[in-house]
Amino acid sequence: MPEQWGIWSNWSKQWCFGIAEPSKSQARKKLFEKIGKDAYKWRFEAKKIKPTQRSRSIMATEITTKMVTGKVRLSYANIWEPKENDQGQLKYSCALLIPKEDKETLRKIKAIVDALKAEAVAKYKKLPSNFKLPLHDGDEDKPDDPNYAGHYFLNAYANNQPGIAKPIGKGADGKTKFQEITDSTEVYSGCYCKVSINFYLYDNKSKGIGVGLNNIVKVQDGESLAGRSSVNDDFGDEDFDVYDDGDDEDFLS
Q1: Averaged in consecutive runs of 10 residues, what is the pLDDT profile of the chain (253 residues)?
Q2: Quick check: is 181 in a domain?
Q3: Is residue 133 domain-shared with residue 89, that is, in the same domain?
Q4: pTM of the prediction?
Q5: Same domain, 121 and 205
Q6: Total number of domains constituting the chain
């Protein structure tokens, strides 16, 4: 009987993702296709499936922890330069504001979160009382910020700079073509994007579900949330003496 390799979760002590491939490398490749960079997490291991385990492995619940959002608004977009967090680590990050009427994006998030909660219950026997969830209600958690009204939000982080691009039409194969964005003024807090993210369990000083930031595609401009005022706003009502600086020679003599 030919070999089969699957993905074993060292966290929940069970087969996951329904993967059964003829080699270890192919099993790892299939895992990466399903969950992206989260495949590198320590808890997932490619293991040879014993004949007595094959049915259980193939029938294991398939969980994908990677998704692409609908149109969301960026806030606190530290995506061009990393910023030091409370642990002294440099991280790229941004908050994603998700309209409450975007049922499809919220459905995807809930499915992934519920699956990871189940994985955590398998690990801890019950969900820890301090278990942190990634999705927050802007109306409840940010009541003083009108930009968060009518939105859910989550905070996504990355060790490496996310890919940042914009669509530029269709290729010959009918698929969308993208152009990399390198101008930091083009993607900012307040603009609208579609974002690829992945979810993962963490267990350090606290326990919960975190969100990884992968790639950002800008789809629409929006009012900046940077909070920076213009020169006219700051000084328009001030009086200034107007100097004639045309006589530079006298000034320098």
Answers
A1: 81 73 89 74 81 53 79 97 89 97 94 86 83 96 96 96 95 94 96 96 90 97 73 64 52 40
A2: yes
A3: yes
A4: 0.69
A5: yes
A6: 2
